[in-house]
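To: structure subgroup
Subject: Chain for Friday's discussion

All,

I'm putting the inputs and outputs inline so they're searchable in the archive.
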Amino acid sequence: MLKDKMIAPPFFEIGVKNYLYGDRIAELALAADRASRDYGVDIIFTTPYADIRAVAEKTESIFVIAPHMDAEPIGRGLANVLPESIKAAGARGVMLNHVEKPLTFTVLERAIARARETGLFTVVCADTVAEARAAALLGPDIIVAEPAGLIGTGKGVDASYMEEAIGAVKTVNPDVMVLVSAGISNGKDVYNVMSRGCEATGTSSGVALAKDPVQMIDEMAAAVRSGWDAFHS
């Protein structure tokens, strides 16, 4: 069962941010669910809090995660996002330290610890190679190496950044998986990342703002599989 399974390469992350809401998110989640099975690619689906339960209940194969959480314990803390709450809603994990929701190193450390004790896997975002290296010291499950200046631009990272970021993380902790992203707009972009040996990549606006988001999910999932297979052939 999915609840007993952990993500393994090759995988892909889709984050709808606030580009979409309601039924449109559910539609994309179902498309991601199908694509995950069709291509044998694990897919992380990062969804707004209000849609976690609906997406989790309607899908079988994707890993639904929350876009953020707070490290505070159960009790007081009006409007804080409680780890136990997102897990109860159906989230399998949580994204932390996205450029749009940055955390200090101390708070990030506490949040990772809270997620771990709650049974949520952690996806930690890092802008620079140095930040990725520092984040690896905290032992998250996945690090997203994503230069902030390239997010949403349609311009991807170069090969040197990929190699340096992956090398920096794996030197500190070889068990941490690395997702390299930014500027992923189509299947070709996905293939270019995966065929260089990356474990994963992902997108937000590349899917959410596509002319046909459902078709784009299929295209990108296929490219994850073909790029990974090309590198490992």
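Points worth raising on Friday:
The chain has nine helices and eight strands.
The two ends are 29 Å apart (CA to CA).

D.
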